[in-house]
Structure formats: C-alpha cells, structure tokens
Amino acid sequence: MSYVEDPGPGRGAVPPRAAFTSDAPSLPLNGTWRFRLSPSLAAAPPDVADPEFDDAAWDELPVPSLWQLHGHGEPAYTNVHYPFPVDPPHVPSDNPTGDHRLRFDLPHAWPAGPALLRFDGIDSCGRIWLNGTELGVTKGSRLPSEFEVGPLLRPSGNVLVVRVHQWSAGSYLEDQDMWWLSGIFRAVTLLSRPPGGIGDFWVRADYDHTTGLGTVRVETGADVVLDIPALGVAGHPAAEPLELPVEPWSAESPRLYAGTLSTVAERVPVRIGFRTVSVENGQLKVNGRRLLLRGVNRHEHDPRTGRVVSPETALADVLLMKRHNVNAVRTSHYPPDPAFLELCDEYGLWVIDECDLETHGFGPLGWDRNPGSEPMWADACLDRMRRTVERDKNRPSVILWSLGNESHTGDNLARMAEWVRHRDPTRPVHYEGDHECSYVDVHSRMYATPGEVDRIGRREDDNERRRDLPFLLCEYAHAMGNGPGGLLEYRELFEKYPNCQGGFVWEWIDHGIAVPGHFAYGGDFGELIHDGNFVIDGLLFPDRTPSPGLTEFAKVIEPVRISADPAGIRVANHYDFASTGHLDFTWLLEEEGTAVAQGVLAVPTVLSGQTTSVPLPSLPATSGESWLTVSATLASATAWAPAGHVVGWGQLPVSAAPARPAPPVRGPVFRTAGQLLLGAGEFDAVTGVLTALGGHSLHGPRLDVWRATTDNDRGSAPGPSEASQWLEAGLHRMQHRVIEVDADGDELVVRTRVAPPAQAFGLFADYTWTAFDGGLRLRVDVTPDGPVPATLPRLGLAMALPGTFGSAEWFGGGPGEAYPDSCQAVRIGRFSSSVDGLQTPYVFPQENGNRTAVRWAGFTAPDGTGLRVDGEREFGFTARRWTAAALEAARHTDELVSGSLVHLTLDVAQHGLGTAACGPGVLPRYRLEPRKTSFALTLRPVAGGVAN
Description:
Blueprint: E1 10-11, E2 26-28, E3 31-38, E4 59-63, E5 76-78, E6 97-104, E7 115-119, E8 122-123, E9 125-130, E10 133-138, E11 145-148, E12 158-165, E13 178-180, E14 183-184, E15 188-192, E16 201-208, E17 213-220, E18 225-228, E19 233-237, E20 242-245, E21 257-262, E22 267-272, E23 277-280, E24 283-286, E25 289-290, E26 293-297, H1 311-323, E27 328-330, H2 338-347, E28 350-354, H3 378-392, E29 398-402, H4 411-423, E30 429-430, E31 443-446, H5 450-457, H6 464-467, E32 471-476, H7 487-496, E33 500-505, E34 513-515, E35 518-520, H8 548-556, E36 560-565, E37 568-573, E38 583-591, E39 594-600, E40 611-614, E41 626-634, E42 646-655, E43 670-672, E44 675-678, E45 681-684, E46 690-693, E47 696-697, E48 699-704, H9 722-729, E49 735-742, E50 748-755, E51 762-772, E52 775-785, E53 794-802, E54 807-814, E55 827-834, E56 851-860, E57 866-880, H10 884-889, E58 901-910, E59 933-943, E60 946-947
Helix pairs in contact: 1-2, 3-4, 5-7
C-alpha cells in the first residue's frame, strides 16, 4: 500500500515531546522555497529527492504557506461532505502533489552532533528527504513531526525536499468545517540537540486552594535543576516535589512564574502557572472554584494566508477576546499553533485543547466504516491524541483535553480517552460525540435549545452518568450573518444552574478569503461540492473587525453587571475569582442624549459572586427624558487593555419624557390637478401616497412587511425555514390596492389592502394624515385579513428620500444595530452616522443596520435640509441606498450599488434573529406574529438642521 493511503500515523518521526525553546542553537527554515505542483503523484518528478536535481525552472513559494492561496490550484470549502469518493483509506489518483525544495547552509558555529528537523504543520501528508536520504512521512496536519538529522547535515549545501499531497488517508480524519488547503503551513525549524540536554519535560504545578500552597515537580531527565527566582528557588533538583506559597494562575489573574530548567548542556526557559483542575459534585472547578466558561470556538484563519496565522494575528485574537470579556477558547478542531497557547497562558484564557480529528463526512453515510470504530485507524487516532497531549502538556491554560469533533463514537475514541486519563489524570476529558458520556468527564452538547439546557440544569436525565457531570455547550449561538439572537437566555440558564457551566459560541471568525472587491466563500472558486457561505459564521469579519454579534456577546457576558435597585444602583460581580478592586466606577447623566453631569461613583470592593447596592449620586434636575449610565472601567492598564477600558456598564432611567400636548390640527385638504395638499405635504390624488414634504421629494410611506432574509431566517431548525415560509406566502412581493382616498375635511384618510399575488390573505392598512404647524401626523391602523402567515419579517412603513439626505441623527438605541433578541449592547442616547455608516457589511449581504427604541430620527443633506421623524411610541429604522430587494439579491458586498435615493423603513417591530442557521430558531417571545396594530408618527421638514 502506498504511504499516501496507509491509514497509519506516518513513519520515521521521533517520539512526540513538549513544544519549547532553549539556548541550544536553532535555525528557522522559513522563507522562500522552490515549488512545483503536479496533478498527481504519478506525474510528479521521480528524482526530486536527488540533491543535484535541477529546480531552477520551478516557481518560488513562501514557507509557511498554503499553495492554493498563491495561485496553485483553488481553495475548496465543505462543512460535512468529503470532496472525494468515500472509500477509506483510498484517495483519488488525481491527487495534487506539491514538491518543495530548499537549499540551506548551517551557521558557522553550528555544533556537530544530534539535531532534529521540526515541522509544526503539513497539510495533509508530507514525505521528507534531507540530502538525498528519506527521513519519513508525516500525517496529522495540525500536529508536529520531528526527525533526527544530525548525521546527515553538511556545513553548506544542504538540500531539504518535502513532497506534500493534498489528499491522503489522513484526510479521512480531517473533515473539519473549513477550507481544504494544502502545504507546509506552519514553521520549519532545525534544532540542535546537545548531548546531556533536556529532551522533554513536564512541569507539574498544582495549587491547593485550602492552604495557598503550590507544589511543583518536573518530569524530565536526570541532572535537571529548576530555578524560579521570584520564589527564591535556585538549583533545585527538578524531579523532587517542592511545596511553597504561591499566587495561583487563572484566566482572570494569569500569574506566571518565570524560571529555567537547566543541565550543564542546555537551559530551557519555563513559565509556570500553579492551578488545579477538578470535577467535584457535578461541577468543573479550578482552584476550588466553579467556572463559567464564556467561550468561543477558534479556527486559525487569515483572509489572505488561510491557516498560516502570524504571531501578530494570534495576539490580535487574544487581545480582542479579552477586551470583549471572552474567557475561554475551544481550539476547534485541532491544536493551534503552539504560540497561541503561550498567549493564552500569558494573557489568561481557559482552553479546551482539541485533537486533530473529525470524520463528519461519514455521518450522511450512516457512519459506515467510520474511523472511530474501525481497527485499521486505531494507531492513527491514538497517535494524534498522544501528539496533542505531549506537545501542550506544559500549558496551564489548557484545562480540558478534547478527543476531536463530530467523529461519532467507537472503540478508538474510547482508547484515546483511556490513554489520556492514564497519561494526564490532572485534566478532564471532553468529547461531544460520546452522547452516553461513557468515557468522558464532562457532558457536552452542540446547539441545545434553552429548553433542553433548562432540563439538563434540573438534572432531568435518565442517564445517571450524564446527569451527574458538568454540562458544557461546546458549540452554541451559531454566529452566521446577522446574529446570534437569544444569547441572554443562555446566560440566564448558565447562572441559574451550577452544573451548566457555559459554552463556546460558534465561532470566532468568518473564514472569508480576500479576493478583489469582497471576501469569497464556498462555491466562489468553482467547487462542484461545497457548502456556500456556511463558512462565514464568526463573531469577527474576515479582516478581524468585530461584528455586532461580538459586541452583543461582550455585553451579555460582562463580568460586572450594573442595574437599578430599590436602594439606588446594584453592582454584581460575576467574575469567577477576581474582586472589583481593579475597577473604577463612573457615571454620566444625559438628557435626551446630551451630557448634563458626570462623576465618580463610590463602590466598595465586591468579591466574586457577590453584589452590593450603592445610592444614586446627587443629580441635577432635568426636564427631558434622562438616563444615568454607570460604567466599570479598568483603573490601571493591563497587558490586554489600557486604563479606562470599559468592562461592564448599565443604564438607569432617571426621568421620562414629558407628555407633549397634541398640536392643533391645521386643515383642510386642498385638491389641485392630480394632487392633494395638506399642510406642508403633497399627495398623489389617486393613491394617497405622500410625494413631497416641505418641498422635498418623497415617496411613501407605505405599509411594508419584508426584510432581506438573514442566514438565520434561511435556517432550517426545525422544519421549513422562516424565509421559505415568507417567500412561499409572497411577503417579498406585496401589492397595494387603494380602497378609498377620503380627502374631505381636515384629515386625509387612505384605506388600502396590502396582499401578495396568488394568496387569499392580506393586511388592511388605513393611513390617517393630519397637518399641524411645521409637519404632518400619520396614524396607521393595520388589521390582518384571512389566513395570514404565522410570522412576519417586520411590520412598519417604507419610504424613499432624496439621496442627498445622507446624514442620520437619532435619539434612541445605539450606537450599533439591534434586533428584538439581540439588543443588550445598545444604550439610549443621541447618535449620528452617515447613511453609509449605518450599514453592517455582512460578507453575505442580508438584513442589517436596524436601530431600535428610537424616539426621533433626522435625515439631512449637507446644507442642513431634510426630514425628521418622531414616534408617538418607540420605533425602529433602517436607512440604506439600495432596496430590500437588491439586498436580498446580492451575494457579495460589492454587488450592492448605491442608487439615487435613501430607502428608509420605520418599524413597529421586527421578527427576532435566532440561530436557526445551525441551532434553535427565534424564541417565542421574539417572534413577530400578525395582529391588529396601530401606531403614529410625525414627519417634519428640516431647514438648516432644525425641524420646522
């Protein structure tokens, strides 16, 4: 059998060991290599390993890289299905094969003796030669392989050759939800290994929370000594346990002690974090405290380099996580570059470290011949787990080992768990696919509904083993497109039930690939089998700009919660360990969005899990609607954010808006040729539609129930999607029939029926217009007629404004977009934006940009002229330079072309977002169900920035 199709774990590598650096010489081999892509192994040059082989005509390719992103072949995306016939362990004969060659010299002072050649990642299978001698074969793309090369090295003229195959037997174990990309995508390093050096080590650093003592001992070779200067430890025999008072490590206070392990031949820097992980009484604990994991699933992705992620990008991820209150990461679905875990140690993030294993494509085939239960895959599965654990065993941030993802179950997975438990009894084992929890230590689910989580929290489970374990949502709140909705309900359950210990949002970043004009997703590269934009499902846009979903998540999971209290202001500390001693509290009083007063709020230090109440500060009197915003901010700079960074905030109503008397009605309605005139308004005499106000050309408003569908609207959990039901009902093509235009007296009354073609149902919409000095008042009465759909996308009015009205200002919820089940992150204030700035550039265009709880909104031209809308009750609005139909039709952001109008919607309500793209739909309380509705607005022309 060809090595490519061998289901085993590869050959030739030395046993796995921890990732670390030392003072021994090393030589990075990253850089420009020679490269040739052949369509198959058979077509690849047979003598490529010969040091004298002439590669002068080959292309150049950077290493690390993925060759499809450098013009060699095309990326391909699937979520579940294998893009080749499922005939394990065989792969297609047409198997793109990339030959990489590098010539290098050793540094002048390179020592003779043992040396290792380390590859941190090759996708999917690599065969390696040095100076004409074969070293071996790598399998396990996201795992390191090291080869002994000392006797083969020359002072100069070394020739390293790596033949990489796009497909191998290992591809059956690597069906993760991501792009199929190939190459040497992580670092290549030559490491001198001095005789008498430190080949491997495992720092065991436990913490006893009852005594405050830490115990450290190191599993390593003989004659290794440990130094920890900050603890006064010098020359201590590393293998001998040492007990001493320490500060523990946690994600909130990531205390690391710098130290060294040394022999006469080598010194290894170590950073030691003391902590103990346990499962007690059905709870996951660290250092004796229950954890609440506010986590994300993180794939490694860069929009230009794919899974080649620079240290700077990895740091950017960690800083963004910390600044958005994320405290945990699941390394979906493979071990990340080891540098990322070092950052988690340093900055403080809990980590589920997941093995490079997923066989999801066997699911649609009934799991027939699934590697998780087939003996021929046993060695490969265990090898991947072993390499994961050995590489990352020294990372205090890693608190759970995960066997992999979506690989069903079977004896091979059970053996992996058994091996882990024997090798490292200090960390529990995670794997969602063990539904019976027969070989794992935590109960894990994906996309459980809030109702299911509630039942799990109440321990209503017939499976006794599962019932008594901590519960995690390893994936939830699928962040595809506009969403996720419903985060608040999950948080409430995590805080209600001690055994429900949080979860990991799917996922951290959209996997868009940068192409001219937009970000590409599945199908954009001509793939015959693909899963479209399902790879665009992150809290970050591909360029790492936070989406509204991340802003919402940060607010929902904020560790300090501020709210109104009968005694004044309630401050609740939801940290797992930290007090509020590192925070300052400030207040800001605003009247109708304008700052009136501000100050410092005296809040006593609140311990974790505790609350306190403090009186309101002395506030000046206000006459308009006023709100008090209290913020908890960092008192001093940390490694991850500057002083003043907002950790949590709350808003309290101080005074309501005063009642405004109804303005006197100014009539009557005048008729002219083809027009009706009422106050400052001009109307079409036949349709009763407003055509101008104060000399500004307008069209509408008219009843509208449609929104461009979101990814979650198009989701299918459970049954037919909301979008398919709306489209089948024809809500996207409603027609307006004028029943009557009554222009007698002081009111203009327009009675209509709004209904789709081919359907018997509709909505009666009556518009009652009256005039007052400076504007118009509109009351709309909506009455469903016939068998209307169960839900509507939105209910409100649509109108068109001049394209010059490109600036928006409003008093209400902001500054960002919000929807009924995703509105925790907005506050009441006065905000402004360009119309263009109101848009959220979802990679796959869809409904976006809704502002909620609006009291009034104005839209103006550069000269200050425009339109102001006031609601008699709160309303929502969107404003954009294209229609909802154009937004629905677009598949990429650069397909949206600005027109000559601003299209404005004024909504009574919108349907929620939910997470039905992969998970629960909109919860009942957020569903927009048709019912009789009345609402009223006033419209005023604006001159010079002031409403008439």
